[in-house]
User: What shape does this take?
Amino acid sequence: MWAYVAKRLLLAVPVVAGVAFLVFAMVRIIPGDPARIIAGEAATQDVVEGIRRDLGLDRPLLQQFGTFVGGLARGELGRSIRSKAPVVEELRVRIPNTVQLAAAALIVSIVVGVGAGVVSAIRPYSMLDTGVMLVALAGLSMPVFWSGLMMILIFAVRLGWLPAVGTGSLAHLILPSITLGMATAAIIARMTRSSMLEVLRSDYIRTARAKGARERTVINRHALRNALIPVITVVGLQMGTLLSGAVLTESVFAWPGIGRLLVEGILSRDYPIVQAAVLIVALAFVIVNLIVDVLYAAVDPRIHYG
Amino acid sequence: MQRSIPVSTTAEPVRAPRTRLRMVWGQFRRNRAGLVGLAILAIFLIAGLLAPVLAPADPYEIQLERGLEKPGVSAVLGRDELGRDLLSRIIYGARLSLVIGVIAVAIGVGLGVPIGAASGYFGGVLDLLVQRLIDILLAFPGILLAIVLVAVLGVGLTQVMVAVGIVSIPVYARLVRGQVLALRNQEFVDAARALGATSGRIVWRHVLPNTLAVIIVQSTLQIASAILSAAALGFLGLGAQPPAAEWGSMLSNARQYIRLAPHSVTFPGVAIMLTVLGFNLLGDAIRDALDPRMRI
Assistant: This one.
């Protein structure tokens, strides 16, 4: 087990290094001269050259990458071109918001998804099952940014129950987290249903029923526990959808997280911000995948990893 | 893989051969969800192809005095903030979205399949390098890589197609590699090798045709996700620019008028949802028809 964890950690190192290099390289080939953007259109060539030297943009690319990695190790990511504030400060403000949104969405998606999947599997091919699966399919095909707008339209504009945009209270979190959690809930529901159906056909379920266990016990204790193993994998795989969905959801609900920071950074060509935001999201994804892999090994004792 | 059947010289009428395609269609026809998907896509395809004929109005004609008009007699789905006919814009948007989806997937298939095939067939250092590169590309969740690529390539429709296409390259590379790994030690490949076929010929004539089914299924689903990503980029202001009749950027403009004109934020999204749903239903049905046990 620990050997497996160590191995997965080691394998993640080149990926993280590659991601860092890719982000670094991409930002350097963005059209437009960052020094000129900082200095403004009216600045003289001397001023632009000065800024270029200050930022180290006149040095060879490899040396710049060295400085970049060194900075990363010390937790320095430069300053935002637009606000002049250290990028780390921006991240410190934004990260908790994104984590809060993603965590709430994850809870929504697991509760709704597993619930719907179990309800469907207990009465397969019934009206209820068909209905639930149709809703799940629609949920899968809905773009997150549009379902967000529909949420605002119905619950904020029409009914006036909840605030449309912004942060500050628990009420502000409800619409964004449901929006973000919906697509993932749909996938989890489909997976839970098919996994449950398979488990319910197995011999040990027949044994449990034969010895007279109540249906509730059969479902909760025997079936669900085993059916949830593949669901965990799906939840893990969906973390990517959740993270990229967060970028869009934040834009719809004016939620001040990393995703919105990234989009704002691109639109205003604030490259230190873009670099840091992309790096953080990609790193988070790698780490989450790592945790999921380890969790999977821990949950399913039948599987041994070499 | 199906060679031509020698034509019979006798007078008897030649029965159409029971081809694999026919068998797959026979399976597919029984799948109601798949047929619904096909019907939805047919509608959008016709709308896209015949946009100039079908659209009731010019999608770019501005009539400021009729801005945000509700659905009614003059405009079935209402008008946007500049008084443009929403139905016409959605019809033209279908054309744009389908083109984006197909081109993006063509880029993904065109580069991803050869990369995956070479990586799987030759193995060794090449495989190792390619797989680590793919690991890195797949470390960017979903649309994030497309966003970063647009940041590099610049904002615009062409850039979006390229970005979304590049994002699907690792998906195909990984998929095809796995298939090729499973196929390369099969007897028919050994036989071809024994007959002296070159590696290129073996991969092209014997291995890749056997991966076609998986590629087709993946492509159907991939078009859906390409359309979704392109619309998302349009919505974020990183994709198609005004006045393009693109569903995502239409939603992006309309959101400011959500109180005054709910119709303008509703219908473009319905169009995206139905198109994506159509491709998802079709992809699932093709997969089931080709091989009920196949899972991607």
